[in-house]
Amino acid sequence: MSQTTNREGVLRFWKRGQIIELNNVPPDRMLLDLLREDLRVCDAKEGCAAGDCGACTVVIADTVDGEHLDFRSINSCIRPAHAIHGMALWTAADLAQEGMLHPAQAAIVQRHGTQCGFCTPGVVMSLFSLYQRTCAQSEELQKSHVIDALSGNLCRCTGYRSIVDAAFSMRDYPKVLENEKEIAHQLITIRSCAQSVMNYEMPTELSTLLELRAQHQKAQLIAGATDVGIWVKQGMKHLPHIIDVHRVKELRAIKVTANHLCIGAAVSLQKAFDVLAKERPVVKAFAARFAGWPVRQSGTLGGNIANGSPIGDSMPLLLSLDATVVLKAWRNSKVMSRELPLSEFYLGYKKTVMWPDEVLVCIKVPRPSEGEWLGLYKVSKRHEDDISAVCMAIRIEGHKQGLDVVRIGLGGVAATPVRAMRTECILQGREDEYAVWKEAQIEIANEFVPISDLRASGEYRQIVLGNLLERAYLERTKQGAVRLEDLS
């Protein structure tokens, strides 16, 4: 059974031109704690300890082809330290070279993008990642790129005007670039060494993962750890055994067939949304409201689904698209597989049909049919980086003013993500007329009994459900409804 693990307890990664080697790092040690407390690297700050404020933002990079690097900004407060084994890591103090500020730093200084300074290192790291992905590759820097990059960083003092101005002015400063090829070669060297601590498994092959899961059914599976990291940081939960799936090749693959998109469970949320948006453009604006950029870079589609939160925004979308999930397990010396609709995956609050030895391997999403219409809506207190009070996805297939197929996926109104099946029955097979939609509005307000919590009252959620159906009708019939993303 081949896997990326050993019993030496050595964690290795590249930082500031050298390979860092650390022994006896616990499996549930978060990267920010390792940086600040063990290495005394204190330019990354701890604010919310939940991946919401961006003060802890660092940049990691993995080798793509042995020559180039894939730069990603992540929240180090909820990222297990062992998850960056074999990668390159930068914090704000690493960017200046030979006394010359990196363009991201120089731009922030010249555009007055800092005041109290607490959030500044995280902001700089988000801009550094953006610079490496765009400016360093001579790509055009667009407004949407800047907004995405900064969506995971809060700034209470300066505000964002000066920071956004700084982002656009990064091109004006002399390039300060790392030698990607040299770093990529060093990462390959690290990978060739044995890795990880006892009880932190990091398999690279699906067969190895399934065997590990069969042997250690109580071990915690993680991918991006954007939720599990919060259990550790805020819930003080101890995880003595972790199986990290984010490097399993089969789980990182995206395959396009004639009828489906097959998205591996360890594909990042950002990449999953990007591939879905290629054929369904409305997904792009919806995806931008899912947490912040660092969370979408770390979190995975499979993790969001398997977590089973009633407010996970990807599930209403996937429910409306009739997505299915593929589960696999190692039993009797062979791989067992089953596929079922996502609508049958959840049993109750954070409870799924998965057996203890099963692993969610991929999500299959039917490709759009001719005449498909898709409406996606998220209601929350903040436009960006916030949790839904209500999330609705509605897909309609029909011709000649008919509602032939109707699917409505919802989040925030029940113990699990759900389909509004009674409301679907009101609409499906009927004429696409306002009177029919009015019936559906009444039905959907009565189909669920949402709870009241800090985000919204149950009564408010019921009203919003009906209002969102009316909004869908107005948009579908092109009666001039306004979407937030259309506002300048």
Q: On the 0-100 scale, what is the average pLDDT?
A: 91
Q: In percent, how helical is the residue content?
A: 25-40%
| Strands, count | 19
> What overall geometry do the principal axes of the alpha carbons give?
globular
Distance, first to last CA? 55 Å
> Which secondary-structure class do the elements indicate?
alpha+beta
Helix count, DSSP H or I runs of 4 or more residues = 16
Strand order, biggest sheet? Answer: 2-1-5-3-4
Q: What low-confidence regions span 5 or more consecutive residues with pLDDT below 50?
A: 1-8
Estimated radius of gyration: 23 Å
Strand content is 15-25%
Main sheet attributes: strand count, strand direction, barrel closure: 5 strands, mixed
Keywords, please?
488 residues, alpha+beta, five-stranded mixed beta sheet, five-stranded antiparallel beta sheet, 31% helix, 20% strand, disordered N terminus
Question: How is this fold's topology laid out?
Answer:
Blueprint: E1 10-15, E2 18-23, H1 31-38, E3 57-63, E4 69-75, E5 88-90, H2 103-110, H3 120-133, H4 143-150, H5 161-169, H6 180-191, E6 200-201, H7 206-215, E7 220-222, H8 228-233, E8 242-244, E9 254-256, E10 260-264, H9 269-279, H10 282-287, H11 293-298, H12 301-307, H13 314-320, E11 324-331, E12 334-341, E13 346-348, E14 351-352, E15 359-366, E16 372-379, E17 390-397, E18 405-411, E19 418-419, H14 421-427, H15 434-447, H16 458-476
Parallel strand pairs: 1-5, 6-8, 7-8
Antiparallel strand pairs: 1-2, 3-4, 3-5, 9-10, 10-15, 11-12, 11-15, 13-14, 16-17, 17-18, 18-19
Helix pairs in contact: 2-3, 2-5, 3-4, 14-15, 15-16
